[in-house]
Amino acid sequence: MMSSVQLPNEKLRYIHRALYKIMEKNHNIACAQLWFVILIAFSLVFFISHDTIDYNSAFTVERNGKLAVFFTSLFDTNPPLLTESPSETNGSDRDVSGDTCSGRYIYVHDLPSRFNDDVIENCSYSLVKWFDMCPSLTNLGLGTQVRDPGKVLVEKSWYATNQFTLAVIFRHRMKGYECLTNDSSLASAIFVPFYAGFDIGRHLWGYNTTARDALGVELVSWLKSQPEWTKRGLWGRDHFLISGRIAWDLRRSDDDDSHWGGKLMQLPESMNMTMLSIETTSWSNEFAIPYPTYFHPSAAKQVQQWQKRMKRHRRPYLFSFVGAPRANMTESIRGELINQCLGSRKKCKLLNCHSGSQCDSPVEVMRVFQNSVFCLQPAGDSYTRRSTFDSILAGCIPVFFHPFSAYGQYIWHLPRNYSSYSVYIPEEMVREARVSIRKRLLQVPKAEIASMRQEVINLIPKVIYRDPRSKSEDFKDAFDIAVKGMLERVGKVRRQIEEGKDPGIGFAEPGSWKLKMDGIGRDHEWDSFL
């Protein structure tokens, strides 16, 4: 006899009753026939219902005292959690000849190894001061696989990924990009696999400006000598590169040895290129893309399973903060946030990273975020934090205190309607003790919290980087979105040339925060920051 199963609509209940009668009438039917009827019936269910599949469910059939367990798709009435279909994007790019890569071809410069592989060869305490980066560069930049005996993370697609390895991950993802071409004349954009962030990282302390700038100067000289540089009158405006560090590290404006960073992006040739980095400045030829997180799935199914788990996860804490105080930064609000968290009794969970121990553990960080409704994301040494994307990954609603921490940064990856997925509290209100974080968050209606959490969970595939070793292309990740954004940018430049306009106008302009934040919030809401 078949056990009762709750079905989502009248059609399915009708099929269920019919199947039950068939089985009851033909109790002695041969085993093979019984299984055939069941499979056919549930195939019909699938095509009639059009409901979302939930592979975590199961039902049982009892016959002659034995249980047959069917791990199959039952009937999950929740909306799909992966929000973008690869087929939709590919279909829109198909030209009249049926070429699905039309407008999406990318040519990758075959740089001499001194610009990438040689840079990271000496990885122990040289690429990032105080850190041995060698373990972080394993598994194509994903780092070592996370051991999780407590099953906080469940899947095997979790790695101790360092926040500075994005250039390595991106380069290996590019090697598997479906529309690569060896013919640069077909390319819509040209990728420059230079490890700019690692190069400057190894020269930030104890080196003069000449040493800091040497390889970058050599790079642009090499690029100018290639035929692709002058192609179609673009003069490099179809070229783009990745920085695994914040853009400020590559925007030094003079040659004073006491000043921070390198000047790669201040070179005249670089003004014709676009840089994608984990945090941008106000220059219009820079675009921010998400920091790498710990999760690198190989297929959509893994993402869906994680999304559903985060949607159902119990969250005992109203809010949490994972981070260290900034006692040497007088404008930092971190100390006040820590004090408010400690004073909120059982409403807030604090993971103090002052000693750095637990905060270096992906399991411990994700455990805190999973158990929290809201996650505080103040500025650190710069505007942005990798923690923002770890919290989104955990389904935790981020709370921002400065518009440049997210709203003016990740314009390709995060919604323009910032209130749909986050809470904004002006940092001056915290600094002047004019707001209680606990009281402010308790005022958010439960329905609004549920809506924001759903939006955050829907963002997960857009802010993670797929395992570069995966052959699957069944969901769009942060890499795909960044490539799409870059192709659209180059396409705009080409249209300007075709229309007889100067492609340099607006391509690399300083002070473009207003442009980057266009359409976010109310008119003039951010003017005081600009």
From TrEMBL:
Its main location: Golgi. It comes from the Eukaryota. Residues 101-439 form the Exostosin GT47 domain. The keyword Magnesium does not apply. Keywords: Glycosyltransferase, Golgi apparatus, Membrane, Signal-anchor, Transferase, Transmembrane, Transmembrane helix. The keyword Protein transport does not apply. It is found in: Golgi apparatus membrane. GO terms for cellular component: Golgi membrane. It holds the Pfam family Exostosin_GT47. This is Exostosin GT47 domain-containing protein. It comes from Linum trigynum. The lineage of its organism: Eukaryota, Viridiplantae, Streptophyta, Embryophyta, Tracheophyta.
